[in-house]
Amino acid sequence: MVLWGWRWHFGFPPATPPARTLNPVFVEVSGNIPRPGVYTFPEPPTLSAVLAQAGAATLSEKGETKLSSGARVEIAGEGQCRLGRMQGPQLLTLGLALNLNNATAGDLDGLPGIGPVLAQRIIEYRHKNGPFKRIDELEKVSGIGKKKLDKIKSYLIIN
Fold this sequence. Notes:
The protein is of the alpha/beta class. The chain contains six helices and six strands; from the N terminus they run αββαββαβαααβ. The mean pLDDT is 85.
């Protein structure tokens, strides 16, 4: 009789499934502003929302621009900003992928098993052959085999 109660959870319904996993959006704000830093949002924010969080004046012309995770906003002066991408090591620290087609040698050097020499070979291959179409194409770079590719491909994207 006791086993029956245990098997049927003593009349309680089964536990609800876990809530969906959130993928926070990270945006860096730098420049002459009251609160520079990296901010987290539950969904892609507008530039106005990011600037408000950092205590900067909003920009009416670009204010509704949606920013993706890993974006960098640099306040250059009164009413001026530059949009870009965070540095590679910072992206990797936040668990964000590097774009293989615009990562610098310094960015790629932060990948596990990739040193400065191999990072430079990747850059040279990209300059010689054009943008990568697939991440698996990295196997054509001297020094990158299947094992190394399997180790680093989760850190890379192609946009």
